[in-house]
Design goal:
This protein is an all-alpha fold and 546 residues long. Helices cover 68% and strands 1% of the residues. The protein folds into two domains: 361 residues, Amino acid/polyamine transporter I (Up-down Bundle); 96 residues. The chain contains 21 helices and two strands. Strands 1-2 form a two-stranded antiparallel ribbon. Helix 3 crosses helix 12 and helix 13 packs antiparallel against helix 14. 54% of the residues are buried.
C-alpha cells in the first residue's frame, strides 16, 4: 500500500510539473477589481527601465569590480551590455506576443515550457531581486549618512550601525538600521499606487541622468590616459568575472516587461521601452567607467563610493556633493522599481495558485497588490539589516542569468510550437539545451585557465546544434504585427550561449546558491505548488501528455 501511494504521489507530481499555461487572450489583463490600472506611457516605461538600472552599477559595483579588473571594467560593462541587448530583443518579442498581464519571465516560461520550470525560474529571479534590493538599500543608507555628515553638528555623531553597518562574526553579520527604514518608506509609496510611485521615479530618474552627464563632462577634464595602461592589469579573467557581477546593473529593462498590466499601449510601448532604456544605460555606464578609471588609478578607488572619492581626490568638492545627491536619487529609483517589479511577479504567480492566494489580492481602492508589496519589503529589509554588500554581491546574477537564458529559449520554443510539429519541437529544444551546455563548458574552460584550443570544441558543438535547428526549419514565424526578434533561432541561441558562458564565471558561492535554491524550490512545489496550482479552467492551464 505504501509503495502504491508513493507511486501515485510521484505520478501526480510528474503530471503537475508538465502542465503548461497557454497564452491568454489579449483581453486577459482586464479582470475588474483584480486588475491593475493602466497609467504608464512610453516615457514612463523608459524611465522605469533607466531608473531600475542607473544607480547600482555606477554608484555601487563600479569601484568593487574596477579594483580587480582595472580599467577593463569598461569591457565588463560592455560585455554584460551586449548580452543584455540580445536578451532585450527576446523580451521585446515576448512582450508583444503575450497579453498585458503581470508575470514577465515566469509567465513566458509557464507557457513555453511547463509549470515546474516556471516556478524554479521565479524563485531564482526573486532571490536575485531580494538580494539586489538589500544591497542597494545599504548603499543608499551609506550615501544618506555621507550627506548628513556634511552638517558640522552631525559629522562625528552618527554611529556606524545606522548607515555604514556594525560588523560581527568576522564581517558575516553587519547590522544596519537605516536601510530597512528606507525600504519601509518606499514600500509605503508603492502601496499608494503606480501613479504616485511613477511620479517619484520619473522626477528622480531625470535628476540622476542630468547629474551623471554633468559628472562625465566634469571628470573628462581630469582624465590621465596613463591610468588606462595597462588596460587589463590582471588579465582577461577578472574582466569576465566582473561582467557577471555588473550584469545585475542592466536588469532594469525587464522591469519594463513586468509593467505590462499597467501600460497604456503595451503592444507598441513595451518593446520600445525595453530597448530604449537599455541603450541609454549602456552609454552612461561606459562613459562613467572611462572617466572613473582615468581620473584615479584603479587600485586607489573606493569600493563604497568610488565616484565621490575620485572627485574628492581632485579637489572638486562641489561635484562630490552633486554625486552624493545623484547617488541618493539613483539608488532610490533603482530600489523603488526593484520593489515594484517583485510585487508584480508575486501577483502573477499568486494568481496561478503556486503561492498562497494572499499574493494574488489587489486592493480595490488603491488597485495595488499591497500584500505582495509588503512581503517584498519585509524580506529585503531583513537581508539589508543583517548582511553586508560584499558578501551579498558574490551570489548575485544567478537568477538573472538563468531567467534570461530561459526567456531566450522561450522565443525558440514558442516558434517551435507555431510550427505544430511535436517531433521537431523536441529536436529543437534538445539543440537549445546542447547550446546552453556548450556555453557553460566554454565558460568553465576560460575560468580554469585551460588551453584556448579547448574552446573550439564547445563552440563547434554550439554552432552545429544551432545549425541543426536552422536546417530542419523546426521553427515558425511569430504571429501578429508586433515586434519580432530578428535572426531566430541564431540570435536566441547566441544569447543563451553567452549567458551560460557568464554563468560559468560566477563565484563558487553562487553555484552553491543555485543548487540549494533549486532544491528548496522543488521541495516547495512538491509540497504546496502542485496541489494548489489551478488547472481546472481550460483558459488558464492544460496538461501535456507524456
Amino acid at each position: 500500500m505504501a509503495s502504491h501511494q508513493k507511486t501515485s504521489w510521484l505520478s501526480r507530481l510528474c503530471s503537475s510539473a508538465r502542465r503548461v499555461k497557454p497564452i491568454p487572450s489579449r483581453d486577459g489583463g482586464d479582470n475588474g477589481s483584480s486588475s491593475l490600472v493602466r497609467r504608464l506611457g512610453l516615457f514612463e516605461l523608459i524611465l522605469i527601465g533607466v531608473g531600475a538600472s542607473i544607480g547600482a552599477g555606477i554608484f555601487v559595483v563600479t569601484g568593487t569590480v574596477a579594483r580587480e579588473a582595472g580599467p577593463g571594467v569598461t569591457i565588463s560593462f560592455l560585455l554584460a551590455g551586449a548580452s543584455c541587448v540580445l536578451n532585450a530583443l527576446c523580451y521585446a518579442e515576448l512582450s508583444c506576443r503575450f497579453p498585458a498581464v503581470s508575470g514577465g519571465a515566469y509567465l513566458y516560461t509557464y507557457s513555453a515550457f511547463n509549470e515546474i520550470t516556471a516556478f524554479l525560474v521565479f524563485v531564482q529571479l526573486m532571490l536575485d531581486y531580494h538580494i539586489g534590493a538589500a544591497s542597494i538599500s545599504r548603499s543608499l543608507a551609506g550615501y544618506i549618512v555621507t550627506l548628513l555628515r556634511l552638517i558640522p553638528a552631525l559629522k562625528h555623531s552618527i554611529p556606524t550601525w545606522i548607515g555604514s553597518g556594525e560588523e560581527f562574526f568576522g564581517g558575516t553579520i553587519s547590522i544596519n538600521v537605516l536601510a530597512p527604514v528606507l525600504l519601509l518608506l518606499l514600500t509605503l509609496v508603492l502601496c499608494r499606487g503606480v501613479g504616485e510611485s511613477s511620479i517619484v521615479n520619473s522626477a528622480m530618474t531625470v535628476t540622476k541622468i542630468i547629474i551623471v552627464i554633468v559628472v562625465i563632462f566634469a571628470g573628462a577634464f581630469h582624465v590621465d590616459v596613463e591610468n588606462w595602461s595597462p588596460f587589463a592589469p590582471h588579465g582577461f579573467k577578472p574582466i569576465l568575472t566582473g561582467a557577471t557581477v555588473v550584469f545585475f546593473s542592466y536588469v532594469g529593462f525587464d522591469a519594463v516587461a513586468n509593467s505590462a498590466e499597467e501600460s497604456k499601449k503595451p503592444q507598441r510601448d513595451l518593446p520600445m521601452g525595453i530597448l530604449g532604456s537599455l541603450v541609454i544605460c549602456i552609454a552612461l555606464y561606459i562613459g562613467v567607467c572611462l572617466v572613473l578609471t582615468g581620473m584615479v588609478p584603479f587600485g586607489l578607488l573606493s569600493e563604497d563610493a568610488p565616484l565621490a572619492s575620485a572627485f574628492t581626490s581632485k579637489g572638486m568638492k562641489f561635484v562630490t556633493i552633486l554625486i552624493s545627491v545623484g547617488a541618493v536619487a539613483g539608488l532610490t529609483t533603482t530600489l523603488l522599481v526593484g520593489l515594484y517589479v517583485q510585487s508584480r511577479l508575486y501577483l502573477g504567480i499568486g494568481r496561478d495558485g503556486l503561492l498562497p492566494p494572499l499574493f494574488s489580492k489587489v486592493n480595490e481602492k488603491l488597485r495595488t497588490p499591497i500584500h505582495s508589496q509588503v512581503w517584498c519589503g519585509i524580506v529585503a529589509g531583513i537581508l539589508a539589516g543583517l548582511f553586508n554588500i560584499h558578501s551579498l554581491s558574490h551570489i548575485l546574477s544567478v537568477g538573472t542569468l538563468t531567467g534570461y537564458s530561459v526567456v531566450a529559449a522561450c522565443v525558440v520554443a514558442l516558434r517551435l510550437n507555431d510550427y505544430k510539429g511535436a517531433s521537431r519541437w523536441s529536436e529543437g529544444i534538445l539543440c537549445v539545451v546542447v547550446v546552453a551546455l556548450s556555453g557553460f563548458a566554454a565558460g568553465a574552460i576560460c575560468r580554469f585557465d585551460a588551453s584556448f584550443f579547448y574552446l573550439i570544441i564547445p563552440g563547434a558543438v554550439a554552432i552545429i546544434s544551432c545549425g541543426m535547428i536552422c536546417y530542419r526549419k523546426a521553427y515558425g514565424r511569430s504571429p501578429g504585427q508586433g515586434f519580432r526578434c530578428p535572426g531566430v533561432p541564431v540570435l536566441p541561441c547566441l544569447c543563451i550561449f553567452f549567458n551560460m558562458f557568464l554563468f560559468a564565471q560566477l563565484h563558487f558561492e553562487a553555484w552553491v546558491r543555485f543548487v540549494a535554491v533549486s532544491v528548496v524550490a522543488a521541495g516547495v512545489y512538491a509540497l504546496y505548488g502542485q496541489y494548489h496550482a489551478d488547472p481546472s479552467s481550460k483558459s488558464d492551464c492544460l496538461d501535456i501528455d507524456a
